[in-house]
Amino acid sequence: MHMKWFDALNPLSSIFDLMSGARVGRSRRVAYLAAKIGLGAGLGLREARTLYFAGLLHDVGALVSPSGDFKRRDPTFVPVASAQWVRSLDLDPWTEVFVGQSWENWDGSGVPFGLRGREISLGARIVRVAREAAQVMDRAPMDVPLAERLARVRAIGQRAGEVFDPDVVRVFEELLGHPEVVLDAFGPYSPFVLLSKRPAGDAPMSSEDAVKLARMFGRLAGVLRGTPNHAERVAGWAMSLGEEMGLSERDLYSLNIAAYYHDVGWLVGNPGGTFGGDVQEERERLHSYYTQAFLQQIPGLEGPAIWTGQHHERIDGTGYPEGLAGEMLSLPSRILQVAEFLVDQEMALQGKEGAGIKRRLARLLHAEELAGRLDGPVCRAAMKRVSHDPEPASRDQEHFYHLSSEVSEMKKVLFATDGSEASKKAEQMVADILSKWTEAEVTVLYVSQTVPYYYEATPDLLANLSQYEESWAKQIEETVMNTFKDYKDRVRFKHLVGHPATAICDVADEENVDLIVVGTHGRGAIDRVLLGSVSHGVLNRAKHSVLVVR
Question: Per its UniProt entry, which superkingdom is the organism in (predicted)?
């Protein structure tokens, strides 16, 4: 599966717009204008590309609140959360800086740092103007003539020297004299036209980043439905059953993507709303259709699109939305059907008395197979897994206990974290280590990534960015120390600045640890494809044992 950033992020930006209450196409409009202003200001194609993605992602933090509330619009929170999310992707490091400062104002009245004038990076000043222009245009009613709406956009120049950089405003006003720019950005068909405006030098997306995007949107769909971990649990079962059914590594990877995205139709079909009442059943029936239609816009996801569109179909034709049956359903879609069935039944059985959950799950699977609703071979593979594995998601624990039989003493452990969801799994593993080895001591390490500041870097700018990093490190420290509160005398936290993989290995050498624990998004037979850059770097450099928690 080969995707480029433009192909993946442009369709997904429609969800950014829908979920934040903006008019569809606003994110693409900001991206296009930011790149055009950058070129007009004399920047090169690489910088214009960075500006494009900064404009596209400038408000994504509104969707990724740590509280799970994607409607939160705290003006201090959004740019910080947006920058934090962008950092996790393999984009130009300056994308993060531009996004994190895109709410700053020329006169120092912006957030989150209150930067002033040229303390704000040039790219952020450009995104600020592009963002305001798009918002002003979208606030105008659709039936207002284009000339009148453009007059409203031009009016933002009155705040040059106050909110906006006067030089950036001057370039923007010159652009408004070009008819093709006006029609591309503000014309009646702008959202569709901008889908074809590809930034120069667009780069391929890594496999890991493709999974990160899918995982993010899977969680958003779960939050909307009140089940935040649903997609992740379905992905765990799907990968387990895919391996059992002998899928190739390529198909396993695509199946993982499909499992995370399988409910994204809830976001597309019900932007910013709630569920219930007379329309609940209809939305349930249509969400897989919307998922398939949405994923088909992304080159490289044609297969997962079909599989997700069929994940509520049934072998006997009683499913929805199309009532497909038998051989019309592909094997990956049959696996998704069983995986989601298992997750739904696990949730329904939690806290109930009687026969063990494993036995009851096996009975339910057998009943579905006998009724002809779910695929027989996949159900039998699931029953085998249910009988022999505690849970597919618990294979990390099996790895851990296997490791415990090989290590006679565990006295020093280095746990490297970045505060991500993947790190939280590793965090639980470290808690198990502390409970198993009463003499074990843990160093929790967070490394701030060094970013080359090659535009207008000033001491004040660097100090503010350093303050932001210190604040994030403090949040991580509070979270992990709460997890390890029963072992606080044996745990200490350390925050360093540098290249993460190198710093982790250096600390491991200095403290002569027995084990390094890191997290990754990788799963099953395709770990080597999906290992994150930090964990992969640690594995390549470390002289000590490394446990990568999936």
Answer: Bacteria
